[in-house]
Backbone:
């Protein structure tokens, strides 16, 4: 598979691409993560992923004078949605606790928007996984937040950490999507572009 540029600083996305044995390098540039208010919840992470990919694409073309023009750029963004409310990353400890109390005992959606920019064409999609939490005690929530400090994670949790092991009752969809990248679907898209 061709070498790609990952426009993400997420260690989980890097790990998933490594597991899939996709050769890549990481280039990240500061990106505006705001979005138009009229977008649907599925469109929001795709919009943000596109902005990340486009910012890196513009940088690469300028910095390398077109020598990277044939490179494929992959960007992703993940949001957690409860009912119709988009829940982003927590601002601080209290906010993380508040978010997890809200998710406790509920089913929410994890939506990852993926954008692939390539000379062969562009691909964008949103992958949705439904996650149901057991009812969590306040002690469990506080323990998790204080020990794992999930401040860089949408929805204030990571499914591969303690809270996922003890707190998640079920999920429907791609497990790895909840980690931040529906990697099998990404690999299929990359293969489709290179064939």
Residues:
């Amino acid at each position: 598979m061709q070498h790609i540029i990952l426009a993400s600083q997420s260690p989980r996305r890097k790990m998933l691409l490594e597991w899939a044995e996709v050769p890549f390098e990481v280039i990240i540039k500061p990106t505006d993560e705001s979005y138009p208010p009229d977008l649907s919840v599925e469109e929001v992470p795709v919009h943000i992923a596109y902005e990340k990919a486009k910012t890196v694409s513009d940088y690469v073309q300028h910095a390398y004078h077109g020598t990277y023009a044939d490179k494929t750029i992959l960007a992703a963004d993940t949001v957690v949605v409860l009912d119709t409310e988009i829940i982003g990353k927590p601002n601080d400890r209290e906010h993380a606790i508040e978010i997890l109390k809200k998710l406790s005992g509920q089913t929410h959606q994890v939506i990852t928007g993926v954008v692939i920019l390539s000379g062969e064409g562009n691909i964008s999609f949103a992958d949705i996984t439904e996650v149901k939490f057991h009812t969590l005690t306040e002690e469990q929530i506080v323990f998790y937040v204080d020990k794992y400090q999930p401040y860089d994670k949408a929805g204030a949790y990571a499914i591969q950490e303690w809270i996922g092991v003890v707190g998640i009752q079920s999920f429907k969809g791609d497990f790895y999507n909840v980690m931040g990248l529906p990697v099998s679907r990404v690999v299929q898209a990359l293969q489709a572009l290179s064939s």
